[in-house]
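Our consortium's second objective concerns turning raw sequence data into structural hypotheses that experimental partners can test. To show how far this objective has progressed, the report includes one record in full. It was chosen at random from the queue rather than selected for favorable results. The single chain below, 100 residues long, was entered without modification.
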Amino acid sequence: MATTSTPNIDQAALQAEVDKMSQSDLKEQLLKIRVRQKKQQAKMQGSASQKAYQLRQKELRKLLKAKAQQLGIYDTINEEAAKLADAELLAEGGEAEDAA
């Protein structure tokens, strides 16, 4: 199976950035993050039919992955998906820069 490498994060630089923040800046950043997380959680707590749909989709994904692995095409699909995702992210980044 193909492994993906995670980018290295400069922990010291991040710590320095956080240490430089004032208490109000720190509160503002955390508040933005927590509000976004809480909104996402609220969206995910849907009705029973939504839960059933999510379970069905999860099982479908598991079965599709198992079949692709059985056929020996899962790694190829994964690599192609990574390339397409990168291309879409680049396109979205270009659109965001155009809008700015």
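The partners drew two points from this record. The mean pLDDT is 83. Residues 74-99 form the longest helix (26 residues). Both points have been shared with the crystallography group to help prioritize constructs.
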